[in-house]
Design brief:
This protein is of the alpha/beta class and about 550 residues long. About 30% of the residues lie in helices and about 15% in strands. The chain has helices spanning about 10-15, 145-150, 165-170, 180-195, 215-225, 265-275, 285-295, 295-300, 305-310, 325-330, 345-355, 360-375, 375-385, 390-405, 410-420, 455-460, 470-490, 530-535, 535-540, and strands at about 35, 40-45, 45, 50-60, 80-85, 110-115, 125-130, 155-160, 200-210, 235-240, 260-265, 315, 335-340, 425-430, 515-520, 525-530. A hairpin with a 4-residue loop joins strand 1 (about 35) and strand 2. Helix 12 crosses helix 13 (about 375-385) and helix 12 packs parallel to helix 14 (about 390-405). The two termini are about 25 Å apart. About 55% of the residues are buried.
Length: about 550
């Protein structure tokens, strides 16, 4: 059946930067603006002084008309100099409640390149490729301005658009064992990077894939995807791992449990029902996709349909098996990894749901525990008594943080380490309790967000709208995080001269499960035992 409108996906989509309907006006060409010859033709970017940008660069043909729900095709070559001074349209987004016109376009397979203006000193720079979050329903590469990573980190940074919702993750028997189209887009972008990185001063043999939330889940998929072999040499997964899941009722009473990936059969069953509702069920197997491809974007880009298709399917050539099972069986690419979470991840989602589903009393809290954990609820309450937290809502957020992200991420790390001893593997926890709140989140003095999901973004990118700017101490933390991420892109080791030492997972340590705490102020960056902080032994015994 199609999903109800209020679901985990709808709340997850709220973590994407708010979309605007139109692309920015073109930049007027100036003398000195850089021109680069890509494998498809010349493009003109913008000189910003210390760095240059090339926005709206096509990496695949528009997936429109007969190419809707097909694997990405190469972009057509062009003559002359193509304008690359403004971002392209974002991919069609999950519509906001009450929204009118569709935001975004199906013609959206574009990327953006940021590079330092200075020529590299006798070397090619490593390339960082960013996959945005947004629950596979929202967001765009152009939401993230990475000039600090490029200039301070001496890297080339690429941010990518990919198909979302029903346009990216639809399935139907008439499409056969089609890949998850959004993930196929990402791999096409990586192939573009391999073909073109050197033209921007980058090293095609030194690519670090990094992403947050749905972007991190995408990387988990690519780690276990056979066609992704050789497309990247390192990876950073922020707030999303191959073991991540949400229990029943996490975002509202009765909401279903959330697993980020679905079987091909399950996706095709939902697609069959969607085709019936759209009036495209008649005819043979080939007739249904043809009918659906004839529908307008508006008919498909409804909230109901978009969020019914936001889980990449496994059981196809791109993703043969569920990533968590692939990891457990050792079927993953051996590349150095950084994995991490934020200290208060689920306060983001709980805060978004409190207006609809308040948690004011201990009885409210117990009801939510019973919905999520059934007969195990008393044990969870004993470990997380409401009285130990300022409010019952904060107790609930702590339970969900630990159960869904803080403990599943190191569990994935241990699985990787068991199959690949000696592989460079690092963990972190972003822990700034006073991180600026992302713009648009509801304010509640009794529910501080702390270091919630997505709150590390302004420390890595300059474009995230927040309620206030970073303080001096937070800017210093931002510099240090950029240094760590860039050092990892250069060497596969985040450690850099002058920075607090970041131990690898599995290295000798007095801590059982050391990860690097990233917080501002003196001593804010240091190894912590995240397993103890987040009661991971308890959740391991519970089986997640």
């Amino acid at each position: 059946m199609l999903l109800p409108l209020l679901s985990a996906a709808a709340l997850l989509a709220a973590t994407a930067v708010p979309a605007t309907g139109a692309a920015a006006s073109p930049h007027s060409a100036r003398q000195g603006d850089p021109v680069v010859r890509t494998d498809r033709g010349l493009i003109r970017g913008v000189d910003h002084g210390s760095y240059s940008t090339f926005d709206g660069v096509p990496y695949a043909a528009p997936p429109t008309g007969p190419l809707r729900w097909r694997a990405p095709r190469p972009a057509t070559a062009w003559r002359g100099v193509r304008d690359a001074t403004t971002a392209a349209q974002r991919c069609v987004q999950m519509p906001a409640p009450g929204a009118g016109a569709v935001v975004g376009s199906e013609d959206c397979l574009y990327l953006n390149v940021t590079r330092p203006a200075a020529e590299p000193a006798g070397h090619r720079r490593p390339v960082l490729v960013w996959m945005h979050g947004g629950a596979f329903l929202g967001g765009a590469g152009s939401d993230y301005r990475p000039e600090q990573l490029a200039v301070r980190g001496d890297t080339v940074v690429v941010t990518v658009n990919y198909r979302l919702g029903i346009f990216g993750y639809f399935g139907h028997p008439g499409l056969g064992a089609a890949p998850p189209f959004g993930l196929a887009d990402q791999q096409a972008a990586l192939r573009w990077v391999r073909a073109n990185a050197e033209r921007f001063g980058g090293d095609p043999g030194s690519v670090t894939l990094f992403g947050e939330s749905a972007g991190a889940l995408s990387i988990c998929a690519h780690l276990t995807s056979p066609p992704a072999a050789g497309l990247f040499q390192r990876a950073v997964l922020q707030s999303g791992s191959c073991r991540m899941s949400f229990p029943r009722g996490a975002l509202g009473p009765g909401t279903p449990a959330y697993q980020p990936f679905a079987s091909q059969r399950e996706v095709q069953a939902v697609g069959t029902e969607a085709a019936r509702q759209l009036g495209c069920a008649a005819g043979g197997a080939d007739a249904v996709p043809a009918c659906l491809r004839g529908l307008s974007t508006d008919r498909l880009a409804t909230a109901q349909l978009m969020q019914s298709f936001n889980r990449p399917a496994y059981g196809n050539a791109l993703l043969p098996m569920a990533p968590d099972r692939a990891l457990a069986s050792g079927r993953f690419h051996r590349v150095p990894l950084v994995q991490g979470t934020n200290h208060d991840e689920m306060r983001m989602f709980v805060g978004l749901s409190l207006a609809a589903f308040p948690i004011r009393t201990e009885d409210d809290y117990r009801a939510r525990l019973a919905d999520a954990f059934g007969s195990a609820a008393p044990a969870v309450e004993a470990r997380y008594p409401a009285a130990a937290y300022p409010t019952p809502a904060l107790a609930w957020a702590a339970v969900l943080t630990d159960r869904s992200l803080a403990c599943t991420t190191p569990a994935a790390g241990r699985t990787i380490a068991a199959h690949a001893p000696g592989l460079a593997l690092y963990g972190y926890e972003f822990g700034d309790p006073d991180a600026p709140v992302l713009a648009g989140l509801p304010a509640d003095p009794d529910f501080p967000y702390g270091a919630a999901h997505g709150f590390e973004m302004p420390y890595l990118f300059s474009s995230f709208p927040t309620e206030r700017p970073l303080t001096d101490a937070q800017r210093a933390l931002s510099d240090r995080m950029v240094d760590y991420w860039a050092a990892f892109a250069h060497t596969g080791d985040p450690n850099t001269p002058g920075a607090p030492f970041w131990p690898a997972l599995g290295s000798p340590s007095p801590l059982a499960r050391p990860v690097q705490s990233l917080a501002p102020g003196p001593g804010g960056i240091h190894p912590v035992d995240a397993g103890s902080v987040h009661h991971c032994a308890f959740w391991d015994a519970m089986g997640g």
